[in-house]
Write a structure and sequence with these properties.
23 strands, seven-stranded mixed sheet, alpha+beta, about 20% strand, 16 helices, about 35% helix, six-stranded mixed sheet, globular
């Protein structure tokens, strides 16, 4: 049997290929960033061809690190930035323009227009999602209406839609020379076009948005043999056997397989998922109901999710737009140069606010500035914004699920920031735990692929791989905690309604 398992982790800012062994340890890793394209305020795009080139490059680089051959891999899984939407030509494989990224807010007017008939929760009963700039549905509509001649091509069957997982599987499996057009239930559940009960595209919703079913991929489980890779050469013949949206992949990588188990991923955005088992729980407190995973022929498992648009992206903004730090890793040192936030609060509503507020008209606000405040306070406010937003989501999640989370499992790039993790424990008033293997997103995709081909025996084997690297205990007085949180909510309220 092949010794290793691989995973493509195609994220918002970079693409990685990671090779794991059976215990979940990293054998090889390569990473490459791609451009963030901002054509207009509130617009965010990626070049699909650049992502595909980078995917080929990182696969080749990681395999070369340990002189691995395709036969050394039992299978590969794919995890991806969700909701990001693109169209491509079925005949040539060429993208029909840039991908519209999940953060993009260009369809805000369409959100308001569609909300006139049935409100913002018009499709929530079937999809678990409110009308928002976040999801794929209105992005697809925008592409169909704004790329010249594309709707006619779509109606003729010459156009394919996909989230990034679909595009990569199609490319990996042969592109226009026999590539398969599929997605998994987790990514499909983020389009706002899939019915959570039937796990299929919903004809009524497609008609409401004017989206031809012919452009949509086939919905499959998260863990099965999809195809064999034909490109790039380094993995030719390897089974593509796992697909999970990035946040669901992290849930699997954290082995949160039991109802009531939760994880929070601190990446470009911040995403808290709670496993609710085989029951889709409707939210009444601003959360999303989503598919957590579906392994082969087993029933789908669902999750409640709280999505925060801007977390690590705010640190990047501080670096790239203000130049206050030269490297993202420097923010902890700068934030530690002060003992508190100096009364400064940063609400990063760059493209509106997601859960639990769902305010597309909100915009970023820095509140509480005085002559006393300096860059150290601003750096601290940037970190605290992520922790405050996480508490907003966790409070809503506990109300919806009626489960008190005793501990929060965390992962993602920002969990290396010890100051942030301690403040997170303080503002939540509960322990925060970081696993020994922090690459939980890629690991989840590898787990899904490995289960499909028998590389892993089952969930218990995966649970045995999980271990604690470090935990943080709350150490803040209740009065200080609640005063900080009260002022945070005052700042949040100031961000509402900035755009009409």
């Amino acid at each position: 049997m092949a010794e290793f398992i691989g995973a493509i982790d195609q994220g918002t800012t970079s693409t990685r290929f990671i090779v794991f062994d059976r215990s979940g340890r990293i054998v090889a890793l390569a990473q490459k960033e791609h451009r963030q394209i901002f054509p207009q305020p509130g617009w965010v795009e990626h070049d699909p061809e650049e992502i595909w080139r980078n995917t080929q490059d990182v696969i080749a680089a990681a395999m070369a690190q340990k002189s691995l051959r395709s036969g050394d891999l039992a299978a590969i899984g794919i995890t991806n930035q969700r909701e990001t939407s693109l169209l491509w030509d079925r005949r040539t494989g060429a993208p029909l323009g840039n991908a519209i990224v999940w953060q993009d807010a260009r369809v805000a007017d369409a959100v308001a227009e569609f909300s006139l008939d049935g409100g913002q929760d018009r499709f929530r009963a079937k999809t678990g999602l409110p009308l928002s700039t976040y999801f794929s549905s209105l992005k697809i509509l925008w592409l169909l209406e704004n790329i010249p001649d594309v709707r006619a091509q779509a109606e003729a069957g010459d156009v394919l839609f996909g989230t990034v997982d679909s595009f990569l599987v199609w490319k990996l499996s042969g592109s226009a020379r026999g590539g398969i057009h599929v997605t998994d239930v987790t990514n499909a559940s983020r389009t706002q076009l899939m019915n959570l009960e039937t796990l299929d595209w919903d004809a009524e919703i497609l008609a409401a948005f004017g989206i031809p079913r012919a452009i949509l991929p086939e919905i499959r489980s998260s863990s099965e043999h999809f195809a064999e890779a034909r490109e790039p050469a380094a993995i030719r013949g390897v089974a593509i056997a796992g697909i999970l949206g990035d946040q669901q992949a992290a849930l699997v990588g954290q082995t949160c397989f039991a109802p009531g188990e939760a994880k929070n991923t601190y990446g470009t955005g911040c995403f808290l998922l709670l496993n609710t088992g085989e029951r889709a729980v409707a939210s009444t407190h601003g959360l999303l109901t989503t598919v957590a995973y579906k392994f082969g022929g087993k029933p789908a498992c669902y999750a409640l999710e709280g999505s925060v648009a801007i977390a690590g992206a705010l640190v990047q903004w501080l670096r790239d737009n203000l130049g206050l730090i030269a490297d993202s890793g420097e923010i902890e040192k700068l934030a530690r140069s002060v003992t508190d936030n100096g009364g400064v609060y940063f609400v990063p509503a760059f493209s509106g606010l997601y859960a639990p507020h769902w305010k597309p008209g909100a915009r970023g606000v820095i509140a509480g500035l005085t002559h006393y405040a300096h860059k150290g306070h601003l750096a601290r406010a940037v970190l605290e914004a992520t922790a405050f937003q996480t508490r907003d989501v966790l409070d809503a999640m506990e109300k919806d699920s009626r489960i008190r989370l005793e501990v929060l499992r965390v992962d993602g790039g920002m969990v290396e920031n010890n100051l942030l993790m301690q403040f997170q424990a303080d503002i939540l008033n509960r322990p925060v735990v970081r696993p020994a293997n922090k690459e939980t997103t890629a690991l989840g995709a590898a787990y899904a692929a490995g289960l499909a081909v028998g590389y892993f025996a089952g969930a218990e084997e995966l649970r045995a791989n999980w271990s604690v690297d470090r935990s943080w205990q709350p150490a803040m007085e209740d009065s200080e905690r609640e005063e900080l949180y009260r002022l945070w909510h005052r700042a949040v309220s100031k961000s509402f309604g900035w755009t009409e």
